[in-house]
Design a protein that fits this description.
The protein has about 120 residues and is an alpha+beta fold. It is built from three helices and eight strands; from the N terminus they run ββββααβαβββ. The longest helix is centred in the middle third of the chain and has 13 residues.
């Protein structure tokens, strides 16, 4: 599966503007920085999984979903702004390969790997 990679934000939409190739750049941040992944195929897989687990998902998992790779999380807005400027300075939208999906389990401490499901 191939998709476009993007840079952006973690929480607030305020100040976001659409850019070429589907990536977003934001002017305000809440808690960190992430690369946005724009992939209709991945979104379709996620939707099928959410349907299969209907009634078992947490409120967070039932909410809207945006594929992303977290660069930085749980920092001050000033730290996020600095990191975003550094990341954007060298960012070039490009295709990335998504090799599979992984399931993780959170039991109050660090996330624990549960299973991996590689695409054929």
């Amino acid at each position: 599966m191939r998709t476009n990679c993007a840079t952006g934000w973690r929480r607030k939409r305020a100040g976001c503007r659409r850019r070429r190739r589907g990536w977003r750049a934001c002017s305000r941040w809440a808690a960190g920085v992430a690369y946005r992944i724009d992939s209709p195929e991945l979104a379709a897989i996620r939707a099928r999984l959410a349907d299969a687990f209907h009634g078992l998902l947490t409120p967070q998992d039932q909410a809207g979903w945006r594929a992303h790779v977290t660069v930085q999380n749980k920092v001050t807005p000033a730290e996020a702004k600095t990191t975003l400027a550094q990341v954007q300075a060298g960012f070039v939208a490009r295709s990335v390969a998504i090799a599979g999906l992984a399931a993780w389990w959170y039991r109050g401490g660090p996330w624990e790997p549960l299973s991996r499901h590689m695409f054929g």
